[in-house]
Amino acid sequence: MLKLKKKGVFNVGELQAYAVAYGKPLGKKDYFTLIISPAFFLSLFSFLLVYYWWVSLIIFIVGLFYGLRMILPKTVKRNYEIRALQERNKFINNMTQILTDEEKTLVKALSQAKSRCAGELKNDLNVLEATLLSSDMDSVKEAFTELNTKYKEDIVFSQYAEQLETAVVEGKTNIDTFKDIKTYHNDLVRKTKEFHEIKNGHKKDMTQMLIIIVLFILAITFSFSFTTFFEAFARGITGWITSLLFFSMISLFLHKFVKLYFDDSIMEVSK
Question: Which key words are in the record (predicted)?
């Protein structure tokens, strides 16, 4: 798989490479949703507290940087990993189904299953197929080693690749083993999907909470009349301190949520 940085800033070229590995290039909609929208919300939120345009402008710029530095790369990484997992699962299911036909050789089965794949995995399978056709056993073993190394984070897929190598070396296929591994990988995909659905549910709850907070601020603003709020709170030292503390608390809370939302370490499996 493509090596995704855990820390550091991604440039546009790197992000595009991850985006197109199993999908489409990043477009204007992606930049707007993942960078501009969060920055606009934070700037609007700050403006409703102090009504200083220059403060909102500074917050907007900081929000743009945060979206570019945190939200966009983590979203690209999440989408890449989900699509890559789905392609590997599709390959395992197709390959296993084809191998149930005893008349199909492993190379023919690989060629047929590969044709139903897409993206980065299909390119890797093309290389593997070409190596298998070379009839050089040392090269074949090396090709499987490279494949296992590249996808070592997907333990179940790695086991499937090891079984394919065993079948090539020994010249016989244990279809029951392939079926068992297929079942394990299907379970992995299902649990991953359920895990992300739970997180997306929390994301919707967070969005609703932020909307309620904005409405609450507006309600307070106009319950005392805008003029009273503006002069007594937005332009007073007490209001500045309160707004700073409140905005800092919300910002830290959102940052913590972003980190937890994109933290998928609980789904990692180790040998």
Answer: Membrane, Transmembrane, Transmembrane helix
Start-to-end CA span in the chain (Å): 18
- Please state, in angstroms and rounded to a whole number, the distance separating the CA atoms of residues 12 and 203: 26
Residue that has been written with the tokens 């949520």 in this structure: 257
pLDDT tens per residue, range 154-207:
999 999 999 999 998 888 888 999 999 999 999 999 999 999 999 999 999 999
The residue behind tokens 């050789």 is 105
Q: What's the one-letter identity of residue 16?
A: Q
DSSP 11: P
Torsion (CA) 198, 202, 203, 205 in degrees, nearest 10:
140
**107 Cβ contact list (under 8 Å, min separation 6):** 129, 132, 133
Q: What is the pTM of this model?
A: 0.84
How many angstroms separate the Cα of 55 from the Cα of each of 43, 62, 240, 271?
Answer: 8, 11, 12, 51
Around Cβ 64, how many Cβ atoms within 10 Å? Answer: 18
* Residue 103 burial (CB count, 10 A): 5
- Report yes or no: 45 and 234 within 8 Å, Cβ to Cβ: no
Closest CA to 169 of 190, 142, 193: 142
Whether the CB-CB separation of 17 and 73 falls below 8 Å is answered with no
- 43: exposed, middle or buried (Cβ count in 10 Å: 0-12, 13-18, 19+): buried
CA distances from 235 to 156, 182, 241 (A): 60, 64, 11
Distances (CA, A) of 57 to 44, 51, 87, 174: 9, 11, 43, 64
Structure tokens at 122: 């299909």
Instruction: Return all residues near 57 (Cβ < 8 A) that are at least 6 apart.
Output: 43
Confidence of residue 2 (pLDDT cuts 50, 70, 90): low
